[in-house]
Amino acid sequence: MRFLFLIFLVVGLGLGGFAVYTAKSRFDAYEVRLAHTLELESQQNSYVSVAVARRNLAYGSEITTNHVLFVDFPTRVVDIVGENWFLTEEALFDTNSDTLNVLRNIEMGEPITRSKISGFGQDVGMAARLGEGFRAFTIRVDVASGVSGFLTPSDRVDVFWSGRFRGEAVTRLIMENMQLIAVDQISDQDRNRPVVARTITVRATPQQAALLAQAQTSGALSLSLRGIGDVAETGDVEVNLDDVVGYVAPEPVIAEEIIPEVIAPRRTITIRRGSDVSTVNAD
Question: How many separate domains does the chain show?
């Protein structure tokens, strides 16, 4: 009986200890979840004022203080966006100028970001988007060479030249990954309606602009639209009419050397009988 009592005592103590451990673990997990919930609630209750558009702002329009409204956003959202948003009126407007220009359409209530507006006092035209060391160069195109009107500003294209070189018709890739900054007289990046353009303007270095000018006067230029994010270099690409029709020039025939036949001299035997002399072939 005493041994059985000891067994029940040990088992009871083990079950009690397990219950206490389980209860403590649950309470600890609950405290952690409660602390996390309180932290989230404190973050949600923390707000920062952000500059948004009071009404729709179209491309090219000016932004003044009357176009801007400051709305409270959760601090955690602003922390994710970083410095792309404007938190104060002083950060948005220059102290010497109270106007900005819209580079891309801004919807009503949308936060005003640095990528959609020009710098302080800058023009909204192409000159504001070229950057130091670059030039704007215009290429004449038609419905075929202009990718059927599906080119829009900010697209990237490859440029092919077709013409005659040393008496042979060739087509060659001369420029890769060039950025379009205008189609006809339109530089709005949000334009999404296909337009058959007569000219396109690309962003080029002075050396590239000179090469394009020479190529345009000596032949025809065609554009090939690149996919979004495609920055791979194609390398040298050049074809002629032989490549188009699949013509392969025959290999030149090498004439065999003719060795003249050597004729061995005949052997003869001379027979003398008195005054008679005769010759007999020895072969």
Answer: 2
Residue 75 domain flag = yes
The structure tokens listed for 220 are 């025809």
Choose among 189, 182, 172: nearest CA to 139.
182
Please name the residues in contact with 142: beta carbons below 8 A apart, sequence gap of 6 or more: 196, 198
What number of CA atoms fall less than 13 Å from residue 265's CA on the CB side?
Answer: 2
Same domain, yes or no: 87 and 135: no
Checking if the pLDDT of 265 tops 50, the result is: yes
The pLDDT of residue 94 is 64
In a domain, 89, yes or no: yes
The HSE-up count of residue 138 (CA atoms within 13 Å, CB side) is 11
Beta strands (DSSP E) in the chain are 47-53, 62-63, 68-74, 100-101, 135-140, 156-165, 168-183, 199-204, 220-225, 238-240, 268-273, 276-281
**pLDDT bracket for residue 95 (50, 70, 90):** very low
221 lies in some domain: yes
Structure tokens at 197: 């353009």
Bigger pLDDT: 277 or 244? 244
Q: What is the mean pLDDT of residues 181-189?
A: 69
| Average pLDDT estimate for 20-24 | 75
Contact assessment for residue 219 and residue 172, using Cβ atoms and an 8 Å cutoff: no
74 and 135 fall within a common domain = no
Structural domain containing residue 167: 131-245
- Confirm whether pTM is higher than 0.85: no
Q: What is the CATH number of the domain that holds 70?
A: 3.90.1210
Distance of CA 64 to the CA centre of its chain: 35
